[in-house]
């Protein structure tokens, strides 16, 4: 990165005091300061550490309204068009200026300080516009950052000083030449050029670009200042020069048009330019395209071309009063078509009304609030587009346009149909989508005698009214999508041919069927649909996602219906008349309650049959057999979907469907492989999640078979011979036995993840995922999912950078909404130039532990933009954590986008690009598409089992409940993720699909430590503590009772070994040891480490158990090792957790309680098991004995009364307690190991080596001295102290 070097004036000085004369003359009250800095090639980056001096930083910190503006010199906006252009640009080393100013500093003051005429603004590397002298650059930057989502003024000031922001907002001292339209640049390079035909002009090196229909010539230096010559080539000439080798002469079509001679370096290059330019000059001279050029005026050369009939000036910054401004367009005497959309004019150019030859005028997205009456002078106008403005009314003079046939008023502020439209007698198409209509007056449409097409999408329509009973015989196409209609009666539209009314709240729909051809009413609440008379011309009927309980009778009587979609309804049967229709080609009745199919008698031409997710137990045996006319009943069937039913077999007569190429029958009970491998056209077969046991394979498989899915058939075993036969299949999916790898064995105790990504039918994978299970070198984790839709670059960038950004933001703020929002916004900025045109959905999940609060549990923070979602499985039920930012799913975002005058196309996409309103990247769609995320935080509990992350394609085909149910009992997270992706593909997903499953093991079973006698709160709050006074000497319960076990162990920082007895009796008493309690510092588990000095921290160690049940670590009646337990000779090593706890004052339990039931109320719950702890030395040895007290049932000790599973559930213990088996159920963690209790043999005695006896005594004196107690012998039984307490948390 380039270093910032001081200019000739030396270091930057802070501004003068307010009383200084120079400062008082400034409107902003300060002096504008600057410094020249060098760029680093084309990266335009500055070194952060050397950008400011200490005095400058102190000056900025004094007021958040102060800041800096990077002022770029005149340069080409991007230098990547061609290599020659890049070399020409990098050869000029223009300076980069840093200007310190305030939010009140106007552009005129900065220009005066820099010696510039004007400042130019470029957003997102796109167009460049001139700033007005009164505009305030720093205020514009602050407002831009605030609109992105930054809220803290100090953070906004910091972000404004970041040079990476130049990819989104940049200021220039002179207008640069736009060279970033790569699709328009045909050829470019630096060549020797001579202007004119005479020999008076000299040959000079110039930058030559063939762009669109023009030849652009400029000097290498002036190409960065916008000083260029544009030569229109349409209708001109391109000739070879005979006097000079490898040279061409370019001339325009005008009488006095200039001529440029260009000399090339080689013959091949000259011929390439000649061929390309010849195509340009052969185009019609009547069409000139100058869109997206950042023009403020029309080039002078165009006015010499009087034959121009169509001029495209879309997406520029055209001015009114300039030599070639809009007021001069009347000079084109033959102009018929003019496109001035997206020019931000603000005011309607009245002089346009003098171009009487215009037949087509597009003035969309110009911020008009009203139209002048002079628009009525355009008598020849046939098409007028005024979309994306702020119009509320139309002038009456508009009714004079009797030739007008198409009027676009979409995305304005109309509350009713303008009366001027009634006077337009030739109007056929009226578009008023995205306005504020609440009532649809059909009477107005009746008075518009020539209207055919009306578009009222995305309004607030709630009802329809009609003034009279007169029918309308003119309207043929009506679009009412995305409104709030509850009832719709359009029976008065006698000639209605097509109706779109999706995504309303319709319950009843009434139409006229005389001419009805297509009806789309998906995603409503329809219970009845009435069409009268029977629509004899109806070909397509879509009624999916409604509440229909039966197929309407008029549908069965339609003779020409070809497509019928009634999926996601409440159908219980399919009428035989529908299934026997001689015109039906595609029938979709999936996701209903159909239990059986009618028996077919005749041949039908059905091609696609979708019966997925019904209640079908069997198919009719004659469904695929021959009809009476000796033809197959479903001879033309190509696709058959039977997924999600209860089928056990598929009739063997399916072999008669010779044209069948797709069979999907996953999630059934099919045990016999259907006879489909004989079909000549079969391509895709999905029989996953069934009960297949074997496959009968013919001698030769059909060569067309490309995809065979057999996953989820647990009883299916494929021999090597069968696999060899399947080897030619492009995609063969079968189950593979999961292997325990080193990574999985050493995974985190609290979470483990599995990731599956499938490309589907696309040739590239545009989904990436992020998984960091030891984030920030602590007990934290970060997971993410990124979906680039059609690009793979941005998901990869986010995968590599987003975790690092999160780590930086967490260090700056502890508030989840702050650091998560800033993570997304900073990642949005770091995308740089790649994020200007490309975008990506992003989902980030952060599992953290609040180190500031040692009593806190794990917290899950989820943030997302776009369509990636996270779902938490809590107690078997799905809990959505994300929000889908799309126009269909988020009414608030739809309202915001409409208010900002975005154009929403019919497929519900912003400007026809994306359905997302919030995503990372796509900065050129600002302010409609923003990177501000939705953030949601919640504490994790013991009921939380799984966390599922998925992209758009996954959740489009799977419901939350179905996804959770499908993988809840799958223990391997990788297998679970693969199952979700396979299910989505089985449901017809052909796009990229990604799924990540995180198995959670946190909550009450993850922490049972106590602080000052109180259990650390889990999700259920604190557990009560019972005190014991004057505790008697303990009697040890047997290990077989499942309550407690005596054990002695030698503990070190590397190993804890113990002997596990299997035949312990109740007679073993703790002789030689008292039941008093020894004081000690607070003990914590690995979840809640105590950072305070002087507290004993158990080091990671290995617990080794030696079992006398068998020599290999197996139980006497077991044949296989316990799963998860590694056997090594006669020792069994189990990696689990130690959870330590401490009680403050302990009261003795009455003797009577020892023989009563152990089931106590919640108020009697305790924190865990308590043992005496006596140190043998300071490092290596310790003895643990149980304190005589009743063991009470609590969330942390419930494992002692029943086996506690990882998800928090408890199952009753059997007659004998197998400690090794219990240990395998304990959560695994790298930072702690389980100390299993061992049985004391009767002859066991405490032995202290002679060389360590004095040291042990000294160690045991310290707790007494701290209390001021007497110096008694540490081995006396009547000494009262606090014991070491351990909660084994089994």
TrEMBL record:
Record-linked InterPro entries: Leu-rich_rpt, Leu-rich_rpt_typical-subtyp, LRR_dom_sf, PH-like_dom_sf, PPM-type-like_dom_sf, PPM-type_phosphatase-like_dom, RA_PHLPP-like, SLRP
Region (Disordered): 1-27, 1025-1084, 1254-1290
SUPFAM superfamilies, per database record: L domain-like, PH domain-like, PP2C-like, RNI-like
Biased composition (Low complexity): 1038-1064
Domain PPM-type phosphatase, chain residue ranges per copy: 752-1000
A Pfam family hit: LRR_1
Cofactor(s) named in the record: Mn(2+)
Catalysed transformations (reactions): O-phospho-L-threonyl-[protein] + H2O = L-threonyl-[protein] + phosphate
Record key words, sorted: Cytoplasm, Hydrolase, Leucine-rich repeat, Manganese, Membrane, Metal-binding, Nucleus, Phosphoprotein, Protein phosphatase, Repeat
UniProt signal peptide: none
One MF annotation (Gene Ontology) recorded for this entry: metal ion binding
Membrane topology term: Peripheral membrane protein
GO cellular component term of the entry, any: membrane
Compartments in which it is found: Cytoplasm; Membrane; Nucleus
Composition skew (Basic and acidic residues), residue ranges: 1257-1270, 1277-1290
E.C. numbers: 3.1.3.16
Residue spans of biased composition, Pro residues class: 8-20
Role, per record: Protein phosphatase involved in regulation of Akt and PKC signaling. Mediates dephosphorylation in the C-terminal domain hydrophobic motif of members of the AGC Ser/Thr protein kinase family; specifically acts on 'Ser-473' of AKT1, 'Ser-660' of PRKCB isoform beta-II and 'Ser-657' of PRKCA. Akt regulates the balance between cell survival and apoptosis through a cascade that primarily alters the function of transcription factors that regulate pro- and antiapoptotic genes. Dephosphorylation of 'Ser-473' of Akt triggers apoptosis and decreases cell proliferation.
PANTHER family: AGAP008170-PA (PTHR45712), INSULIN-LIKE GROWTH FACTOR-BINDING PROTEIN COMPLEX ACID LABILE SUBUNIT (PTHR45712:SF22)
Name of the protein in question: PH domain leucine-rich repeat-containing protein phosphatase 2
UniProt organism field: Phascolarctos cinereus
Name of the gene: PHLPP2
């Amino acid at each position: 990165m380039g270093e910032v070097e001081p200019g000739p004036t030396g270091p930057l000085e802070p501004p003068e005091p307010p009383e200084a004369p120079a400062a008082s003359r400034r409107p902003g009250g300060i002096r504008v300061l600057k410094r020249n800095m060098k760029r680093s090639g084309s990266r335009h980056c500055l070194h952060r550490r050397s950008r400011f001096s200490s005095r400058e930083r102190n000056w900025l910190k004094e007021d958040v309204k102060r800041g800096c503006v990077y002022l770029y010199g005149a340069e080409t906006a991007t230098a990547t068009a061609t290599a020659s252009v890049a070399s020409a640009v990098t050869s000029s080393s223009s300076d980069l200026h840093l200007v310190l100013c305030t939010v009140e500093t106007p552009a005129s003051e900065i220009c005066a300080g820099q010696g510039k005429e004007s400042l130019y603004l470029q957003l997102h590397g796109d167009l460049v516009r001139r700033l007005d002298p009164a505009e305030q650059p720093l205020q514009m930057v602050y407002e831009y950052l605030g609109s992105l989502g930054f809220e803290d003024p100090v953070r906004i000031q910091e972000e404004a000083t970041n040079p990476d922001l130049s990819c989104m907002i940049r200021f220039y001292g002179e207008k640069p030449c736009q060279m970033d339209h790569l699709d328009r640049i045909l050829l470019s390079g630096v060549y020797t050029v001579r202007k004119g035909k005479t020999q008076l002009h000299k040959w000079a090196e110039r930058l030559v670009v063939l762009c669109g229909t023009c030849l652009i010539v400029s000097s290498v230096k002036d190409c960065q200042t916008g000083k260029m010559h544009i030569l229109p080539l349409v209708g001109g000439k391109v000739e070879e020069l005979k006097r000079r080798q490898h040279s061409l002469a370019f001339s325009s079509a005008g009488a006095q048009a200039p001529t440029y001679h260009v000399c090339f370096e080689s013959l091949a290059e000259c011929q390439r330019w000649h061929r390309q330019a010849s195509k340009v000059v052969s185009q019609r001279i009547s069409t000139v395209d100058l869109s997206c050029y950042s023009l403020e005026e029309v080039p002078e050369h165009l006015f010499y071309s009087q034959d121009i009939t169509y001029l495209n000036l879309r997406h520029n910054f055209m001015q009114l009063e300039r030599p070639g401004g809009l007021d001069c367009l009347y000079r084109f005497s033959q102009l018929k078509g003019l496109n001035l959309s997206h020019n931000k004019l603000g005011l309607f150019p009245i002089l346009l009304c003098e171009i009487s030859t215009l037949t087509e005028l597009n003035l969309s997205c110009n911020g008009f609030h009203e139209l002048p009456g002079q628009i009525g002078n355009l008598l020849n106008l046939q098409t007028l587009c005024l979309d994306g403005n702020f119009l509320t009314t139309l002038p009456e003079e508009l009714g004079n346009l009797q030739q007008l046939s198409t009027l676009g008023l979409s995305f304005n502020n109309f509350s009713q149909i303008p009366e001027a439209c009634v006077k337009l007698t030739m109007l056929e198409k009226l578009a008023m989508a995205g306005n504020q209509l609440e009532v649809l007056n059909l009477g107005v449409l009746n008075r518009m005698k020539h209207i055919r097409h009306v578009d009222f999408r995305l309004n607030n329509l709630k009802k329809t009214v009609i003034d009279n009973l007169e029918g309308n015989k003119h309207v043929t196409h009506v679009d009412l999508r995305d409104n709030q209609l509850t009832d719709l009666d359009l029976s008065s539209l006698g000639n209605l041919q097509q109706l779109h009314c999706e995504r309303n709240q319709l319950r009843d729909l009434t139409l006229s069927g005389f001419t009805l051809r297509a009806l789309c009413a998906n995603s409503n609440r329809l219970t009845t649909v009435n069409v009268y008379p029977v629509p004899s011309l109806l070909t397509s009927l879509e009624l999916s996602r409604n509440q229909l309980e039966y197929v309407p009778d008029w549908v069965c009587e339609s003779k020409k219906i070809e497509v019928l979609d009634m999926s996601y309804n409440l159908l219980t049967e399919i009428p035989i008349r529908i299934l026997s229709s001689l015109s039906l080609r595609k029938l979709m009745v999936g996701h209903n309650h159909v239990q059986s199919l009618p028996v077919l008698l005749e041949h039908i031409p059905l091609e696609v049959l979708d019966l997925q997710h019904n209640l079908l137990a069997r198919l009719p045996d004659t469904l695929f057999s021959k009809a009476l006319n000796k033809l197959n009943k479903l001879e033309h069937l190509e696709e058959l979907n039977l997924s999600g039913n209860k089928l056990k077999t598929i009739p063997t007569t399916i072999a008669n469907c010779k044209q069948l190429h797709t069979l999907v029958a996953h999630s059934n009970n099919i045990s016999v492989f259907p006879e489909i491998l004989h079909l000549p056209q079969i391509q895709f077969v999905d029989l996953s999640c069934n009960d297949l046991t074997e496959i009968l394979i013919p001698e030769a498989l059909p060569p067309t078979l490309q995809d065979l899915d057999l996953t989820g058939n647990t009883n299916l075993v494929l021999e090597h011979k069968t696999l060899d036969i399947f080897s030619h299949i492009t995609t063969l999916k079968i189950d593979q036995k999961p292997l325990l790898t080193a990574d999985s064995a050493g995974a985190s105790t609290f979470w483990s993840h599995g990731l599956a990504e499938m490309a589907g039918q696309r040739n590239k994978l545009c989904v990436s995922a992020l998984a960091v299970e030891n984030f920030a070198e602590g007990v934290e984790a970060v997971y993410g999912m990124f979906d680039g839709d059609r690009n793979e670059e941005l998901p990869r960038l986010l995968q590599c950078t987003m975790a690092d950004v999160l780590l930086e933001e967490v260090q700056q703020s502890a508030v989840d909404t702050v650091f998560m929002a800033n993570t997304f916004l900073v990642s949005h900025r770091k995308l740089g130039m790649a994020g200007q045109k490309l975008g990506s959905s992003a989902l980030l999940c952060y599992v953290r532990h609040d180190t500031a609060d040692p009593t806190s549990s794990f917290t899950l923070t989820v943030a997302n933009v776009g369509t990636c979602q996270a779902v938490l499985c809590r107690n078997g039920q799905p809990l959505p954590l994300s929000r889908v930012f799309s126009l269909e799913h988020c009414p608030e975002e739809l309202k915001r986008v409409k208010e900002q005058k975005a154009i929403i196309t019919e497929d519900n996409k912003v400007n026809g690009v994306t359905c997302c309103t919030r995503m990372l990247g796509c900065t050129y769609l600002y302010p409609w598409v923003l990177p501000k995320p939705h953030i949601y935080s919640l504490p994790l509990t013991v009921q939380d089992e799984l966390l599922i992350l998925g992209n758009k394609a996954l959740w489009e085909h799977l419901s939350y409940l179905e996804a959770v149910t499908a993988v809840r009992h799958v223990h391997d997270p990788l297998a679970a993720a693969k199952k979700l992706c396979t299910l989505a593909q089985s449901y017809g997903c052909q796009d990229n699909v990604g799924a990540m499953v995180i198995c959670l093991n946190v909550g009450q079973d993850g922490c049972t430590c106590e602080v000052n006698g109180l259990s650390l709160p889990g999700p259920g709050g604190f557990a009560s503590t019972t005190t014991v006074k004057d505790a008697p000497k303990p009697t040890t319960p047997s290990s077989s009772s499942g309550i407690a076990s005596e054990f002695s162990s030698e503990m070190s920082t590397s190993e804890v070994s113990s002997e596990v007895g299997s035949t312990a009796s109740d007679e073993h008493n703790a002789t030689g040891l008292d039941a008093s309690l020894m004081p000690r510092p607070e003990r914590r588990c690995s979840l809640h480490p105590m950072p305070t000095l002087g507290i004993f921290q158990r080091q990671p160690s290995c617990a080794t158990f030696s079992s006398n049940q068998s020599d290999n670590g197996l139980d006497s009646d077991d044949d296989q090792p316990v799963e998860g337990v590694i056997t090594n000779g006669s020792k069994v090593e189990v990696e689990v957790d130690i959870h330590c706890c401490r009680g403050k004052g302990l009261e003795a339990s009455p003797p009577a309680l020892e023989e009563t039931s152990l089931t106590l109320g919640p108020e009697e719950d305790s924190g865990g098991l308590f043992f005496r702890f006596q140190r043998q030395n300071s490092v290596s040895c310790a003895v643990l004995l149980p304190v005589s007290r009743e063991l009470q049932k609590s969330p942390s000790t419930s494992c002692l009364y029943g086996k506690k599973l990882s998800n928090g559930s408890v199952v009753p213990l059997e007659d004998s307690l197998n400690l090794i088996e219990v240990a395998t159920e304990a959560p695994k963690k790298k930072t702690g190991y389980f100390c299993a209790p061992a049985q004391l043999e009767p002859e066991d005695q405490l032995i202290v080596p002679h060389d360590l006896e004095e040291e042990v005594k000294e160690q045991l004196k310290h707790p007494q001295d701290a209390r001021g107690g007497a110096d008694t012998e540490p081995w006396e039984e009547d000494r009262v102290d606090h014991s070491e307490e351990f909660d084994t948390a089994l």
